[in-house]
Each structure stands twice: as C-alpha cells, then as structure tokens.
Design a protein that fits this description.
The structure holds 2 protein chains of 2 kinds.
Chain A (H helix, E strand, L loop, with lengths): L1 H25 L20 H7 L4 H4 L14 H8 L6 H14 L9 H10 L18 E2 L12 H6 L4 H5 L16 H14 L18
Chain B lengths: L8 E2 L2 H4 L20 H18 L8 E2 L15 E6 L8 E7 L2 E7 L12 H10 L9 E2 L2 E2 L2 H18 L2 E6 L5 H12 L5 E4 L6 H11 L4 E4 L6 E5 L10 H11 L11 E6 L4 H5 L2 E4 L5 H16 L15 H14 L3 E5 L4 H13 L7 E7 L6 H12 L3 E7 L3 H4 L11 E5 L5 H5 L2 E2 L10 E6 L2 E5 L12 H8 L6 H13 L27 H11 L1 E3 L29 E6 L13 H4 L8 E2 L4 E3 L1 H7 L5 E7 L9 E7 L7 E5 L39 E3 L2 E3 L1 E13 L3 E2 L25 E3 L27 E6 L8 H9 L7 H5 L8 E7 L6 E7 L8 H5 L5 E3 L5 E3 L9 H5 L6 E2 L27 E2 L5 H7 L7 H5 L5 E5 L6 H6 L4 E2 L11 E4 L1 E3 L12
Parallel strand pairs in B: 8-9, 8-16, 11-12, 11-14, 12-13, 16-17, 17-18, 22-27, 24-26, 32-43, 33-42
Antiparallel strand pairs in B: 1-34, 3-4, 4-5, 6-7, 6-18, 10-15, 19-20, 20-21, 22-30, 23-31, 24-27, 25-26, 25-30, 28-29, 33-40, 34-35, 36-37, 38-39, 41-42
Helix pairs in contact in B: 3-20, 5-15, 6-11, 9-10, 9-11
Classes of the chains: A mainly alpha, B alpha/beta.
Chain lengths: 217, 1011
C-alpha cells in the first residue's frame, strides 16, 4: 500500500517536473554549444542589407580571412568608406530631399540613430570631421562565434581552399542580426574534414588533416 | 671503431661514484591530511561532483574590439617583424622583434646582420621580458617621490646653472655605450662644464686589453676579434663563447672553424687555459687548469718560444719554470707558428703586463689585421678603470658637484661604489630602481630598448638602429632626450638620432649596401649608395643595420719596447684560496637580475638555478670536508682591502683549479627582491629567496683594485665551513636518461648517449640497425616528415635555445623550490656530461627535447589518447584531452615531458602581454612537451620553417626540416656518418638525431690527457 503511494507521489512529481522543464528543454544544448546565439550588438548592423541586398563581398569588411587566421572585425574607419556620404537609409535621405525641394531649401543633413553611434565612436562632429575634443574609441561588438582557448582555427586555410563562408557561418546575408548557425563543435569540424577528404571542396581534392595538432597546440 | 672513443659519461660526481643523487625527498600529497588513499579518492569524488555543479554558469559574453583605424600593413593575427638592435649587453646583436597585435612577443636573431649572423643569446631572448616589467618606474622620481618631468628638468637645470657659475666638477658615469649618438651627446654635455668628464667603466671589465694596446699600439682600443679566421685558438681565462665581449658573434665565428671539412677533415684547434670550468673551456680540444696568478708566466713562456721562431728579442733567461707541461707549450707554439697569420691568442686577464704579452704574441703571429683588428676596433668594451678610480677618489674627497649616471649601477657592481652618494647632485638615468637609483636625488626612468629610438655601432663600421615597437603605460624618456633637455635644446630621441646620422654616418655610407630580400635584378638601389639621407635611413631601418666606412683609428707600429716578460707566478699563500669572480651565462653582471627566465635558466656547466655559490674542485672540497650545499664563509685576509665575509653554499665543480674558489657575479641584487612570490603558493612551498631576502649573494665587493685595473681576482681568501646547509636547486641529475648503476641490467650500466670522435675523422658508415618491430608498417609517411638534427660538435651549451623556447612556447617559471622537486618546465634542456677520470674532465653538451619517436612509448600508455602521432611525424600532445595520469612521462626514455603541477601564476596583466597568442597556456594537471613549434609549422604553411631553438642558436647546431625532401639540409645531415640516435637500441625511432662530437685531438688514448 505504502509503496504504491510512494510510486504515485514519485510519478506525480516526475510529471510536474517534466512539465516544468519542458520549456527549458527546448533550448537545451550541450555545454559550450552556442548554436542559435544571437546577441544584441551595440549598433544594429544588418548583414541582410549589406551582404544580401547590396551584395557587398564578405571579404570587403572581413579582409583578414584570406591573409590571417582571424577574419577580423572591420575597423570603424572602414565603415566611413561608404558612410561618409550615406548617413541614413536611402529612403530617409530621399524623403528629406523631396521635402527640401518642396520647401525650396537645401536638404538638411539626416543622420540615422544607429550611424550616429558610429560617428560618436569615431569622435566625429556634426559635419563628420574629427572632433579634437573627443577620443575615438573602438566599438565593442559582441563576439558570436567563440572557440575554446585550446582550439585554434585558421581562416586562411579554409578560405583559400574554397570553403564558402556560409558553410560555417550560415546564410549570413539573410540575417538581420548575426546568429551562430552551426554547433562549431569538434565533431562537426572533424566530420567536415573527413567528408572533404573524400569528396573534395568545390570539386578540388584537398588535404584536410584530422591530426590533433591541426587545431590544438 | 677507429676515430670513436668509448668512454664513461657521468652527470654528477655522485653518479660517477655510484652514490644516490641529491634531490628533494618526494612527498605524498595525500599524506598530510591524515587520509588514506581510498578516503582521499572518496572525498575527491564528492568534491569534484560538487565543483562541477557549482561551476555551471552562462557562457560569458566576449567582445571583439576592432581597431578604430587600421593601417594597411596591420592584419590582426599576423606577426610583423621589425629590425632592431639588442641592447641587453653592449655586444649589439641584430634582432627582429616579432610583433603581434601591436606588441613584441618574441625576439629573433637578424639573419642578415653582419656580426651576430642570425643567432641571439639567452640574455637577448629573455630581455624581452624586461619590457613588461611592472616594477619599472613610470614617472621621474625626486628623493623617491613621483614627480613630473617639468619639475625634474627645472630643478636639474637650475642646479647646473649654479654649478656653471661656481665651477664645480660635473661627471657622467656609464657603462660602455655603443650608441654613437648618445656618446656624442654626452661629450657635448660635459663640454658645457669646465673640466667636465665622461667616465666609462664595465662591471666585467676589459680595461687591461685597451690599456695594453695603448702601450703597444699607441691607441687605447679593443680589437675586433675574427674567430672565423682562426685556425689555432689559445684562450687564457677568456670565456668568449659564454660571456666575453660578444659571445654570439664569437660563437658564430668559432663554429665556422669547428666543423670538420675537407679530406682529410680539418678543423680549428682550441686550447684553453683557465682556473674555473667555463663554457669555452668545455668546448676546448685541450684544457689546462691554470691558477690566475700563473697566466702571465705561461704567456711569457709561450712568447719566448714564438720569439725564438720569429727571431725577435725577448729576455727569457730569468723565467721560472712553466706551470704547464713544456710539451704542451711546445706544441701550442709550433701550431700557432704553423698557422700564422691564422693563430689567435685571447686573454681575459685584467693584468696589463699579461695583455701586453698577448699583443706581442699576436703581433709575432702576424695576426693583427687578420684574426684581430685594432685599426677598426670594437666599441663593445670601452671601460677605463684608471679614470673610474680617479672618479671614486674625487667622490671620496667630496669634489664632485654633479654626477649623472647613465644606465649603470655602481653602488651594486663596484666595491665602494656607494660613494656615488657623496656627489652633491646625483641623477640616475636608469631603467629600474636598482641600488644606485635608490641613492639618487633624481631618478629619470629610461625606456626599454624595444620602446624607444636608439642606435649602436658595436664594431667600427657596423651601425644599426633600434626602433620602438610598442608604447606602454608610463612616461620614460631616453637618456638622449634628457641630456638634450638639460643642455637647453629639447628634442626627441628620434630627432637626435636622425640628426647625428645625417651629419656623421650618412657621409660614411659604403658604396655597396645589400638590401636583403631583393634579388639581383630586383631593385637598382641594391649595391648602390643611397641617393639621399631618407633613402639611407629607410634602408638601414629596414635592414636593421648598415655597413659604413670604418673610422680607422691612428695606430703606431707595434712597440716592442713595451713588452716585459712576467718572470714569476703569484704563489699561493698557505692554505688560502684565490677567488675568481665571473659573469654567469644569463645573469652577466647582474643587470638582468630582475628577469625570472634568466634566474631559472640552469647554468650551462653547473646546472644550478636561482643561486650563486662557491665552486670548489673535488680535491679542495675534500680538503675542507664540505659537500654540495654546505655553506662556507669566504674571508679576505687583512691588509688586502678586506671586505665583509661572504657566506655561500658550495658546489663541487670538477675541472676547476684546486686553489681557486669561483663565485658568480650578478647575484644578490636588490632587483631580485621581487621573487618572494615566485612559484606556486602551496602548503609545502619554500622560499626562493635566501636569508638576505635576495637571490644569491653579491660578490662584487670582492673585486680588487690593482695597478689601476679592477680585477675579478681576489687572492689570499680563507675558506671555512660554517656547518650550515643551504640546498641548491640544481637540475643536473633531473630527468636523467642514464640508469643508476644499481638498477641497470648487467652489461647495460652505461648507455651510449654521447658519441665522440677524434680527428682524423674516420667514422664508420652509418647504418641504422632496425630491430624487429612490434608495430605493423601501416603508417607510411609519404607527405612531410619533420625531423631534427643537432650537431654536438658545434653546440656550445650556451642555452640560447632554452630561452628561445621559453619565450616562444609560454613556458612558466616555477621558482627555486619547485626546481628542487624536479619540476622545472623547460621543454628543451641541455644535458651536460662529464667524462674522463681525475680532476681534469671533458664536457659534452647535449640538447635534449622531445624526440618525436615514430614508435613513441608515451603514445601507447596514454589511457585517453591525449598523445598521438600526426601524419607528418609529430608526436602531438593534446592538452584538452590530457587527464594527467603522467604515465607518458614515466614511459618516456628521454624524460622530456613536463607536468603542470600547478596553475603557475599568470596574474600580472602586463607580464602576460609577453605570451605568444598562438600557443595555449597550459593549466594545472596537464602534461606538456616540445611540439617542434607546431604553431610555426602551421603559420608557415609549408614554406621554410624554423623552430624557435633553431632560429636562436648562434652556432647553427640545430637543423629542422622535412626528412622526406632529399634536398633539405636535415635530410643531407641525416646521411652523415657522424649521425646517430640517442638510445637507438630501444627502437623507438626518434625523429631527432645527433651528429657525434668531434674533438681535434689524436685518436690514441681516450682520456682528456693525451697529446
């Protein structure tokens, strides 16, 4: 009798526990797996707009990818190559021009709130000239793709042998806010290395080593 | 086997005599808690589970901060190399500073530099760490309190104006300065004051050599030695491969003559006469123990023999009998005479009369202009002990109004040097708060050479630049800029150096100036003189150095009238000893005592770390009834400029003269007081510092004045045991690959670890005996197969590779106590073997690192596959898999694996900037070992790759490369007849092999004594 009560109590407990845990289990990941990580960035930079709509090449900004182990986050100065003239979304600029034409006055400078953050970080004044009173500071972008300290990944080897950026980073050109798509776990790396050795990368034969010291040293 | 001598090798006297070695007793970590093993494991299990649960947390947010404005040549993750000049000692070797993410992380020798030729010594390698020293003063100090440059400058200029009105004596004191700009600047500064003088001294002085040349050649200059041209070398107490003047350059030159070449093979012959066993003596073909007082007499005998051959007059009738065998002197004289003008005699003595004899011998050999050059002299030592003594006298008589110290530390490295405090104005331009800076009224911090502009002309005609590679917090100012400010025309160091170069060095540029890296048809500028100054400057900055027309100095023909024979030896008095003070490889004169890497570097001969000690010969130690670590008291006898008695632990050193106590300089410096916290903090830890709160004892007070030279020799010193014991952290019996005699199977008491040959070199053709293999041949290495060959003949044991590896691979410092427990972490060690019977010993140095065995014993025992073989022949250690069973280390026949017993302190954020970002910092509980610099292999992506140890080696003894490429140097060396594998009989098939040691001596005999 008593054992039955105990069983019932335990089962009820288990059911409640499961119910309580279900919402959390949905987001379950193995420790260290950051798949789906999509942090808020200090500036709402849109990869969809830049890489997707405007079709700017990945390596225009991440220029280290074929020269260095790090692809690199572009320096704020690089953004100014375009954003010295493009200070707000095109639609907003056009609208201001329309209004200015109607009111018969020169268009007022329009700066989008997100780009304002960029200009502030660079220490620029309203006319986008360096303001001697302000010190340029780097923008603290939140790093999305993190590898553990004991693993070293070399962008060069992958980019130069023809692996597409999207292979590891997902379809970044469709993301409004950048997100980690793949698990970046060791098994995921090694499987790709094995497959590449078998079938090659874009039709070329490659030597994707699976030695430990390829990544761990 | 003809040409090869079979002999016994031993690492310590205990090993030779079959006694157990002296090491710390192993302690069981579990015993102190009063638990038995099972309870311990049980508790550990719960603790582990608890910690794992408690450790669960969200992944921390990481930020990626890009540069605000990225210069085109800066690519994050890629290293840039800037050519510069090493200023860790006055030798002025060329370096390339490897910079990652805006800071230097490693120094490499500049392979194009015409003096150092690509090598860099241990001190140069470690000097990088000085840049990231938290304890350097950041602001100028006035009486110990921080102040600003404006205040200091105003004060000093006011005091100088007063002095100019009242006419007091102004002196500038410095060590040898190779910078032509700084030297000119100081000259200009002292000219502002009537009677102003610049006094130069060297803690390890060569003043007698310069004085002797003043007598014989009429020019006070240090000749530039060309060891590469010498076929017969006789060294008298000159440690030219270890610490004397310019060891990297000399090692490179010496090496070129020491590789057997031609048929029949020939190599330079080297005889060394010395009191203590030095690095140079350990490489000599014939080494003779000679007391310091006997050098002059021996030189006289040699001079007499050569004068007879040359038909020169030399009064040799009143000479005492030679203290060395006459047959040896005959042979040396004959060989020197036959080899002329390619003979070379060098002498480290501070006795001017002896140095005059050396000049006479070199003159008779016609060596001037060939193996040594006094017309185009070296600036690496300029010290003038006579002027120094005059300055000390002035100070004692309170006649100095202002004394400016430029990067020197007289209060520490001179006997009675604290007299500098008697100057009415004492200004110290110094990098650190050393003994002298603490006495100074004003401390003007100078920057590290990697963060400021500078220049050097170490040898007449070779000029080089040093350039800033980083700017760290703090506001140091180069002495150059300080002097300019005090003279009233402030300028930056860059402007001053440029101006000096424009005026003085640009006109001296040579017509041929090679531009490395540019092919024959590459650029018209190669080989042509630079058109304008900017081109010359840019080219020099790029190359790191330039050859300019030497400023030939006026030299008289040799003056034979100055030569006087030294007719007698200084006799030993009763049972007293002569103390010989020497700079140690690594610490030199103590200017690097702040450097933990150098403090933990085992001495190449004694293998002791973290201490200085009194070396005694085995005979002397037996006479005094003392053993290693027994503390003795060194007492100078009265009437001999007596000083405080020194108490030092004994080290019994085979090969040392019986009446000599050798003590290293450079210890007991206030700069070493910082090491109280070095090493892990744990229950059983014992302090690294000695009873005086410092590392070692300062022996400089024993330096003695004689005939206006400061001599590192102090005769008539009484040595007595104190009865105390102070164990030394000596690594010589750690990680030994020889088997203790009582454990060895019969017939295997001695393992053939070293192979040695004599000339004429008739080595048997090399064939590897392949024993039957347990493993199937299913791992063909068809791609690259990394291999290394180390030439024991050219390796001098200088330990540059050890420091290079430490810097490259983030090897931690563990402290004295951990070293005593055999837990030093160096990935490459240099095993030093003695051989021979009696007190005269031969020495062999063998760099020992992970051998990357093809049949690696470590790999088969790892339960978690943390150490496995790569397809390119590397034995890989995977830190994140390792669980720390240490089975691999136990099963390694070469004992090259190192275990992280602790998380070695990495709390100093500034210090951590030196870490190589390409190499994992290992944590507690993980095994580590040499990786063949796999990060460099990865970075080079198949192109020519050099390991850190290979790059740094001044003797080019280490060759690394692809053994499967028949055109590679390593593949060619692997088919040399001298090549062998250590412990090859185990059939572990190491990828590292060695070329046997060749001694230039006849095959007969086998002991070190035959002729």
């Amino acid at each position: 009798m008593r054992s039955r009560i105990t069983t019932i109590v335990l089962l009820v407990g288990l059911a409640f526990g499961t119910l309580a845990l279900v919402p959390r289990l949905r987001g379950y990941r193995a420790p260290g797996n950051q798949r789906g990580y999509e942090p808020v960035q200090p500036i709402a930079f849109s990869h969809r707009l830049h890489a997707g709509e405007l079709e700017i090449s990945c390596q225009y900004c991440h220029s280290g990818a074929e020269k260095s182990r790090h692809a690199g986050i572009p320096s704020s100065g690089l953004c100014l190559n375009c954003h010295r003239t493009v200070t707000a979304p095109l639609g907003v600029l056009r609208a201001e021009q329309e209004v200015a034409k109607q009111e018969n006055r020169p268009p007022r400078p329009v700066v989008s709130p997100e780009l304002k953050k960029l200009y502030d970080a660079l220490g620029l004044d309203d006319k986008l000239q360096p303001d001697p009173g302000r010190k340029p500071t780097p923008i603290p972008w939140v790093k999305i793709h993190n590898l553990p300290d004991h693993a070293s990944f070399d962008h060069r080897a992958h980019v130069l042998s023809g692996v597409a950026c999207q292979h590891c980073h997902g379809a970044v050109e469709t993301m409004e806010r950048a997100r980690q798509v793949e698990a970046l776990s060791m098994g995921w790396c090694v499987n790709c290395h094995r497959d590449s050795n078998r079938v090659g990368v874009i039709g070329k034969k490659v030597n994707a080593s699976t030695d430990c010291s390829t990544c761990h040293y | 086997m003809s040409g090869e001598s079979a002999r016994n090798y031993w690492k310590s006297l205990e090993e030779r005599d079959g006694q157990p070695g002296q090491t710390a007793e192993p302690t069981d970590p579990a015993r102190w808690a009063g638990l038995d093993r099972r309870d311990f494991l049980r508790a550990a299990g719960f603790l582990f589970a608890g910690t794992a649960l408690a450790g669960c947390q969200r992944t921390p947010t990481r930020f990626a901060l890009p540069l605000v404005d990225q210069a085109e040549e800066i690519i994050p993750g890629r290293a840039s190399y800037y050519a510069s000049t090493c200023c860790a000692c006055p030798a002025g070797c060329g370096v390339l500073a490897k910079c990652r993410d805006g800071r230097p992380i490693k120094l490499e020798g500049n392979p194009d530099h015409s003096l150092s030729g690509g090598g860099l010594c241990a001190v140069g390698q470690a000097s990088l760490l000085g840049l990231y020293d938290r304890l350097r003063p950041r602001q100028p100090l006035h009486d110990g309190r921080e102040t600003t440059w404006a205040v200091v400058d105003a004060d000093i200029r006011r005091r100088l104006d007063e002095i100019r009105r009242t006419g007091g004596a102004v002196r500038v004191l410095s060590n040898s300065i190779t910078s032509p700009t700084l030297r000119a600047s100081i000259q200009e500064f002292v000219r502002h004051f009537p009677g102003g003088r610049h006094v130069v001294y060297d803690p390890v002085s060569c003043s007698a050599i310069l004085d002797a040349h003043a007598r014989t050649h009429g020019a006070r200059a240090l000749p530039h030695y060309h060891f590469d041209r010498a076929a017969v070398i006789a060294g008298f107490d000159a440690d030219f491969l270890g610490t004397w003047i310019s060891p990297v350059e000399f090692t490179a030159g010496y090496r070129s003559g020491r590789v057997p070449q031609g048929t029949p093979p020939r190599m330079a012959w080297h005889v060394q006469f010395e009191a203590r066993l030095s690095l140079t003596g350990s490489k000599a073909d014939r080494r003779v123990r000679l007391a310091p007082g006997e050098i002059g007499l021996t030189l006289s005998h040699l001079a007499a023999r050569l004068a007879r051959r040359a038909g020169s007059a030399f009064p040799d009738d009143r000479l005492e009998d030679a203290p060395v065998p006459a047959a040896l002197l005959d042979q040396l004289a004959e060989r020197l005479w036959q080899a002329r003008p390619n003979g070379l005699v060098v002498c480290g003595s501070q006795d001017v009369a002896a140095q005059v004899l050396v000049n006479f011998i070199n003159h008779l050999l016609g060596a001037y202009g060939n193996t040594l050059d006094v017309e185009r002299p070296s600036w690496q030592r300029q010290g003038d002990d006579g002027q120094l003594r005059e300055l000390l006298r002035e100070l004692a008589e309170d006649r100095v109004a202002a004394l400016f110290l430029i990067d020197c530390n007289p209060a520490y490295d001179l006997p009675g040097g604290d007299a500098v405090r008697r100057a009415r104005l004492l200004v110290s331009c110094s990098e650190r708060l050393d003994e002298t800076a603490r006495l100074a009224h004003y401390v003007c911090p100078v920057p590290h050479y990697l963060e400021s502009w500078g220049d050097a002309e170490p040898v007449n005609g070779v000029v080089s630049l040093s350039q800033p590679t980083v700017r760290l917090p703090g506001d140091p100012r180069p002495a150059l800029a300080s002097l300019a400010t005090w003279m009233g025309h402030p300028a930056t160091a860059n402007a001053l150096v440029r101006e000096h170069w424009r005026r003085h060095l640009f006109p001296r540029q040579e017509t041929r100036m090679p531009l490395p890296g540019v092919g024959a048809g590459g650029q018209a500028a190669a080989g042509a003189p630079a058109r304008d100054f900017q081109a010359f400057w840019d080219q020099t900055l790029h190359n790191g150095y330039a050859r300019v027309r030497p400023d030939r100095i006026a030299v008289r023909p040799f003056d034979s009238a100055a030569v006087r024979p030294i007719t007698r030896a200084v006799p030993a008095e009763g049972d007293t000893f002569t103390v010989v003070l020497y700079p140690k490889v690594g610490l030199l004169d103590g200017r690097h005592a702040y450097n933990p890497w150098l403090q933990e570097l085992p001495d190449p001969i004694s293998k002791v770390t973290w201490d200085n000690y009194a070396c005694l010969s085995p005979t002397a130690a037996a006479r005094l009834n003392v053993r290693d670590g027994d503390v003795v008291r060194l007492e100078t006898t009265a009437g001999n400029g007596s000083s405080q008695p020194l108490e030092l632990p004994v080290l019994v050193q085979p090969g040392q003269h019986d009446q000599v106590v050798a003590v290293a300089l450079g210890y007991g410096s206030q700069l070493s007081a910082r090491f109280g916290e070095v090493g892990p903090a744990w229950l059983e830890g014992r302090p690294t510092l000695g009873p005086n709160g410092l590392v070692g004892v300062n022996a400089a007070p024993l330096l003695a004045w004689e005939d206006n030279t400061l001599r590192p020799i102090r005769p008539h010193v009484r040595v007595a045991a104190t009865g105390r014991h102070q164990p030394l952290a000596c690594t010589q019996s750690h990680h030994t690959i020889t088997v203790p005699q009582h454990l060895a199977p019969p017939g295997h008491e001695r393992r053939p670890v070293i192979r040695e040959f004599t000339l004429p070199l008739i080595a048997p053709p090399h064939h590897e005996e392949q024993a039957a293999d347990l493993w199937p041949e299913d791992h063909p290495m068809t791609g690259r197969r990394w291999a290394m060959v180390i030439d024991l003949s050219t390796c001098t044991g200088c330990s540059a590779c050890v420091m290079a590896c430490q810097a490259e691979n983030n090897v931690p410092v563990v402290g004295k106590d951990e070293v005593r427990r055999q837990r030093e972490m160096h990935w490459i060690r240099i095993d030093r073997y003695y051989s021979g019977a009696g007190d005269d010993v031969d020495v062999a140095h063998q760099p020992m690192l992970c051998q990357h065995c093809e049949n690696a014993p470590c790999e088969t025992v790892c339960p978690v596959l943390a150490t496995v073989h790569s397809a390119e022949g590397l034995n890989q250690q995977v830190y994140n898999r390792c669980v720390g069973t240490r089975y691999c280390a136990n099963n390694c026949p070469y004992k090259t694996r190192r275990f992280n017993w602790f998380n070695y302190p990495r709390e100093d954020a500034l210090h951590n900037l030196v870490l190589n970002p390409d190499v994992t910092v290992r944590s507690r509980g993980v095994m580590e070992k040499c990786s063949f610099c796999v990060q460099r292999i990865r970075e080079s992506r198949g192109a020519a790759v050099q390991t850190a140890c290979q790059q740094s080696c001044p003797a080019q003894a280490i060759v690394f490369g692809d053994a499967n490429d028949p055109t590679s140097r390593v593949a060619r060396l692997m088919s040399e007849p001298r090549r062998y594998q250590v412990l090859g009989e185990l059939n572990v098939r190491p990828s590292v092999s060695y070329l046997g040691l060749v001694r230039n001596r006849p095959a007969a005999g086998g002991g070190p004594h035959h002729e």
